């Protein structure tokens, strides 16, 4: 083993909470105490400069390029390793443009499109029939992904305490399943907004298929345009969209939501959260969610209070998201050959790394998933006990 390789192994040796083996050429080094949980094989090692600039990008790209292989189960290895992400190196100055990207409407439209407009055919392969791309709700361990997504939407709609004739806005509506269910089961009228042309197209098809043209519509719209829209709603919901807003715009987001709400209305916010305010992972920002930032629970609660949003309920679904991601990865693995034909081997490795790494970070509590139910001002008309 040469000096460079020894330096590399020394860098990895700090990640010793769970024992593992590192193989470089014919040399195998053991890190940690006890039997190895997994083995990492390096066909080519990243430079120390790359590792210190961004450990996440250096190791992530090595896996994407086939320079790094995991012997055994990828999720298990990541679950053992990523609980130590606090030891990763990130040079924020060198990565400033990547980590702190522009919050302009034009740039955020581009960022959202880069992820969600990959193509409906791609997402259809590994999502469930509802086309829900957010955390499911598993009532029972044996629930299927489809059951979990149906149950998630049912739970959200119950929390919103909907009644026939009410109006509902879904900010970041995805492919529209939630609004369709709300219209069919509760008789509401709703508007969904999205920045994804592919999602809008599919949602419009679903509205016609379900004969809901008189109840639902979908608009290609930035949340910042809501105050000038003239729209007013009894209920507002946002599922998995806040992560794209950016830390400097959380207060603006809450103001925009408030501007379209009737007094006493309910607002359910479902989003990936964190214990503390971090700028986000560099590899995820570069390859998966450009501009994505994970809000902390406390900062959202704090901002909400400043705008007379009263917090009724907070629920964590962290382990539900871990299971959701493992289900997605299971589906993805079944369609790898098709995805490879569409996008190539590097994309396949990138996407499975994304799904397994996210599942591991949820399991390790690095990120969480919270649903918060707010009222716009005081509402004394709701039941005094939980109704879901």
Share in helix: 40-55%
General shape? elongated
Element-by-element helix/strand order: HEEEHHEHHHHHEHEHEEHEHHEHHHE
Counting DSSP E segments of at least 2 residues, the number of strands comes to 11
Q: Main beta sheet, described?
A: 7 strands, mixed
Strand order of the largest sheet: 7-6-5-8-9-11-10
Strand content: 15-25%
Question: Quick check: average pLDDT?
Answer: 95
- Rg is 22 Å
Structural class: alpha/beta
Enumerate how many helices there are, as a single number.
16
The span between the termini is 61 Å
Which regions contain 5 or more consecutive residues with pLDDT less than 50? none
GO molecular function: methyltransferase activity
Organism: Anaerobutyricum soehngenii
Domain DUF7884: 10-92
Family: Belongs to the CFA/CMAS family.
List the helices and strands and how they pair.
Layout: H1 3-12, E1 20-24, E2 27-31, E3 39-42, H2 48-53, H3 55-64, E4 68-71, H4 74-81, H5 96-99, H6 105-116, H7 120-126, H8 145-159, E5 167-171, H9 177-186, E6 189-194, H10 197-209, E7 216-220, E8 233-239, H11 250-259, E9 261-273, H12 282-287, H13 297-306, E10 309-316, H14 318-334, H15 336-343, H16 345-363, E11 368-376
Helix pairs in contact: 3-16, 4-16, 14-16, 15-16
Provide a compact summary of the structure.
The chain is of the alpha/beta class and 388 residues long. Helices cover 43% and strands 18% of the residues. The protein is built from 16 helices and 11 strands.
